[in-house]
Amino acid sequence: MTSDKKIKIAVISEDQNFQDYAALMLIGENYDVLSYFQQNEALRNLTQDAPDLIISDFQSTQANGLDICKKIKSLSSLSRTPLIFVLEGQSQLDKAKLIYSGADDYTQKSLLEEELLLRVKLSLFRSARAQDVNPVSLLPGETALVTQLQKRIDAKSPCAVCGVDLYKFREFNQRYGFKKGDEVIRYAAALLSESLRYAGGPADFLAHAGGDNFFFISSPLDAQAVVDKAINDFDKGIGGFYDEPDRKKGFVIVKSRKGDIAQVPIMRLHIGIATNEHYPFINPAQILQVANELKDFAQKSFEKSMYVKERRKDYHFS
Fold first, then answer.
1. pTM attached to this predicted model
2. Are 253 and 154 within 8 A, CB to CB?
3. Which numeric CATH code is attached to 8-131?
4. Which of 168, 160, 163, 161 lies closest to 304 in space, CA to CA?
5. Please, which of 107, 233, 244, 297 could form a disulfide with 115 given CB 3.0 to 4.6 Å?
6. What is 142-309's CATH number, 3.30.70.270, 2.40.50.140, 3.55.10.10, 3.90.800.10?
7. Domain boundaries, given as residue ranges, for the chain
């Protein structure tokens, strides 16, 4: 299931202008921001309310980067929190000491406009990958999915594994940009989570395998209702992410890498449902292969949001 929790970023700086600039930029990306002028005040508060990332002055009258690194990494509640430091002309030796002490990244104050947001996103991505949590949807990732699939295989209980794809998502990103694309990913994650809550069971599991690919595990009995609700709700809501002229036309115009112009339809939801009703699940790779093949068949065969469920009585895997 997904979470409504926002990513929380702490900013430690005695520079009010930098605090204001960083907060404006980060809030614009839908992050929560905590601001502190002094490192001691920050550390007292952050041990009680751990952020997802910390941005700090490297060297000022109120902050010492090496000291902050040492203290953060010694606290169990903060030891895995990414640290980004803002430098003002430090030497290569200072930078090396900072990274060696536990900093995850740094940027020069003179390059904040070009680099700060990129550094934040990269640090969050690396942290999420290490914890197997997708940084956009905040859902479990591929490692957790494989673990769950193996549990279902070992249990030998009836199971449905559904692969979900947002058809023409890449072209939407090309037309509207990655920020709007992230909004669509969060919308799809929330929609799938709500569909599982509404029509699924307590043991159901939802994962974001990366890009626009989601998988969820349910029972064969519940999967039908979950999929029906997800498709219905997606088709009702996805138009809201398009500009009105594109929505009215029912397509967007994009240019290929070769320079060709193409009309790309409004995004659709395609789902492949693999079950062990007719033949057993053997390993996670087999399950994902079947779900992806069925999802691809839905995409190629229907010009609307659609699901395809496994009906073969046996299957020979490549």
1. 0.63
2. no
3. 3.40.50.2300
4. 168
5. 107
6. 3.30.70.270
7. 8-131, 142-309
